[in-house]
Amino acid sequence: MEYTIKQIADIANISTRTLRYYDQIALLKPAKISDAGYRLYSEKEIDRLQQILLYRSLGIKLSQIQSIIDDPIFRTLDALQEHQRNLETEKEKIDQLLATVRKTIQYQKGEIQMTEAEKFEGFKKERLNENERLYGEEIREKYGEEMVERSNEKFMNLNQEDYQKMQELEDRLFARLNQLAETRDLETPEAKEVYEIHKQWLSYTWPNYSAEAHKGLAQIYIADERFANYYNNRAGKEVVSLLHDVVVKYAKD
């Protein structure tokens, strides 16, 4: 049986953009190209994609995944057993997060005391994992593996004060976007403030800032519906194109 790229994307719950990127880097090539120029996949490619996604879920870099599954001595059963061990490790991490939640409930009830670090460490890790699951491939395609890994490391090393400031900035960003959406006037101080807030928010995770990278991120926001949906749903109205236009207008090194 043959599958189109859209069918594969729906089956695996990933974007067609991700599949095209995998083709581009020769990680997952289609079985063939149709006469009309469409990528077509077989069961063999589905099995390979499953292996890729299993390794990605464990945080393994794409370049390493390619080396692993293209190794002549690669054996699917051995790989699955390794996945099982790694998933058990991940389960331990989830159990730690649950422990944090339970302790927080006890803390809120006044039953125990919590250190400052204990209050947010598990949630920070969970947020990073969720961002990786939803947006990791697209961001890596745009900025490269090294920058994304450095950004993730910087995020995980945030102290509680900086982490809270980052959350507050995000709240301010959406409040200002909602206000600006009333007029959508890019020449106002409010528009420039939206840009400054977004730039400052990025500084908590980006190793280095550049206007070009900022504009590139804004382009991803409107090109990928998952990013657009996040901003629009959070704001309760269409704001992602507004944020894009603000960044394009004001971003300068």
Automatic annotation (TrEMBL):
Claim: Cell division is one of the keywords in the record: no
InterPro entries xrefs: DNA-bd_dom_put_sf, MerR-type_HTH_dom, MerR_fam, TipA-like_antibiotic-bd, TipAS_dom
SUPFAM superfamilies named among the record's database cross-references: Antibiotic binding domain of TipA-like multidrug resistance regulators, Putative DNA-binding domain
CDD domains named among the record's database cross-references: HTH_TipAL-Mta
Key words of the record: Activator, DNA-binding, Transcription, Transcription regulation
Annotated HTH merR-type domain residues: 1-71
Family annotation (SMART domains): HTH_MERR (SM00422)
Entry keyword annotation includes DNA-binding: yes
Gene3D superfamilies: 1.10.1660.10, Antibiotic binding domain of TipA-like multidrug resistance regulators
GO molecular function: DNA binding; DNA-binding transcription factor activity
Family matches, as PANTHER family: HTH-TYPE TRANSCRIPTIONAL ACTIVATOR MTA (PTHR30204:SF90), REDOX-CYCLING DRUG-SENSING TRANSCRIPTIONAL ACTIVATOR SOXR (PTHR30204)
Name of the protein this chain belongs to: MerR family transcriptional regulator
